[in-house]
Design goal:
This protein is of the alpha/beta class and 271 residues long. It has one domain: Metallo-dependent phosphatases (Purple Acid Phosphatase, chain A, domain 2, 4-Layer Sandwich), CATH 3.60.21.10. It has helices at residues 17-27, 51-66, 81-93, 141-151, 164-172, 199-219, and strands spanning 6-10, 37-41, 69-73, 98-99, 106-109, 114-117, 121-125, 128-133, 178-181, 223-226, 233-239, 242-248, 258-262, 267-270.
Length: 271
């Protein structure tokens, strides 16, 4: 099967079934003519346990199958990481995992049309090496932990962040041309209103963003595309290895939640 030329790149969906299904319908015409129709999801997709998560995956899979589209997703900070790890273990037991360029990260089929791209996965698309690296720090960590303590609702897991071990493994594999991440590296500066997050969690987020910057300086990509910030923008950065084009996409319910990328030219071609 040939590499896809036009792919859709989508920002956070947060398990929003109605939004996800409606956007798949809108994306489909842009992928007509592709032998392999692909949506690359930038994390905070909706890998949840229980009735809500099952319903989301079932309906999104139906819409993807209707258009013969496959969705590749990295993990964001709000996924149910223990549940995702259990799905990965089951795939390994059933020999369903597919190795990437390096044996330390795989593609895991979660449903017939949805695959999880493990942190550190690398693949080649049109002679460029792509690195998939999920994970991010929750600025609202304290709110989520407090809610669990008071109401018994769990929505935060320590595995949300890239570990030192994962970072070292990614950096040891060297250069990649394109990085697909959930987190935004600290070399890209943004200003936000004061949302009232705790100083401890702001520092926690900053530390993780700086870890991603450390990885970026070792990988030396020309392109980095991320979600997480719920902000759409594109910014070229001058680096010691050349220009790094950083693109962020917005979240569910917003105009700039997804776009179409030509993987041969690396230009945005729609909508």
């Amino acid at each position: 099967m040939s590499d896809p030329v036009k792919v859709a790149i989508a920002g956070d969906w947060h398990g929003n079934t109605k939004w996800a299904c409606s956007q798949i319908d809108k994306i489909a015409p842009y992928l007509e003519g592709e032998e392999h129709k692909v949506i690359i999801h930038l994390g905070a997709f909706g890998f949840y346990q229980g009735e809500r998560g099952d319903s989301f995956l079932t309906l999104v899979t139906e819409y993807l199958e209707k258009h013969d589209i496959t969705l590749w997703a990295i993990d964001g900070n709000h996924e149910n990481h223990p549940w995702l790890k259990s799905k990965m273990r089951k795939c390994k037991e059933e020999d369903l995992d597919v190795p990437g360029l390096f044996p330390d990260a795989c593609i895991y089929p979660i449903t017939t049309n949805i695959a999880y791209m493990e942190r550190g996965l690398r693949m080649t698309i049109h002679y460029r090496e792509w690195l998939f690296l999920g994970g991010a720090a929750s600025l609202d960590r304290k709110i989520r932990v407090d809610r669990e303590e008071s109401m018994g609702i769990k929505s935060w897991w320590a595995e949300e962040v890239i570990s030192r071990e994962q970072a070292d493994r990614v950096m040891s594999n060297g250069h990649a041309d394109v990085m697909i991440t959930h987190e935004c590296p600290s070399i890209v500066t943004h200003s936000f209103p004061d949302f009232g997050f705790s100083h401890k969690d702001i520092a926690y987020s900053k530390e993780h963003s700086e870890l991603l910057t450390e990885i970026v300086f070792m990988v030396r990509p020309s392109y980095l595309i991320h979600g997480h910030l719920h902000r759409a923008y594109e910014r070229p950065l001058d680096t010691s290895w050349g220009t790094l084009r950083v693109t962020g996409l917005d979240c569910d319910g917003t105009k700039y939640n997804w776009a179409i990328l030509d993987t041969k030219t690396m230009n945005w071609v729609g909508p």
